[in-house]
Amino acid sequence: MSKEKLTRKMLGAMGERLALEHLQSLNYSILAQNWRCRTGEIDLIGMDGELLVIIEVRTRSGSTSFGIPQESINAMKQQKVRETAQFYALRYQQLHRQLRFDVISIVTDREGRLLSLEHLPNAF
């Protein structure tokens, strides 16, 4: 990465790419990225065996003195993700599937080098 400061958008895109690569290494089938509907957006949607997995990706750069990335997913955000997941399941006839909500927490240094990636299955 160059010396220029990562923008929030660049950091988020990089985090989602790293999360996607991580999930693919675990043999998840990725069904959608940045899926949107009127209730919100889901970062990644995949299949882990027969489970439909909704993945929220949180990425931070630099210090974690303001908390770790997954701490930013409050009850309101969880509810919004759940509602959006229900719309996805309805739209793509997946209501019969068991849902799981995962979080992938990524920390990079200020230049964008990966420091940690934590996958939290069934996070909420």
UniProtKB/TrEMBL annotation:
Gene3D superfamilies to which the protein is assigned, alphabetical: 3.40.1350.10
Signal peptide: none
Pfam families linked to this entry: UPF0102
MF term (GO), any: nucleic acid binding
Family: Belongs to the UPF0102 family.
The protein's name: UPF0102 protein GC093_09500
Organism of provenance: Paenibacillus foliorum
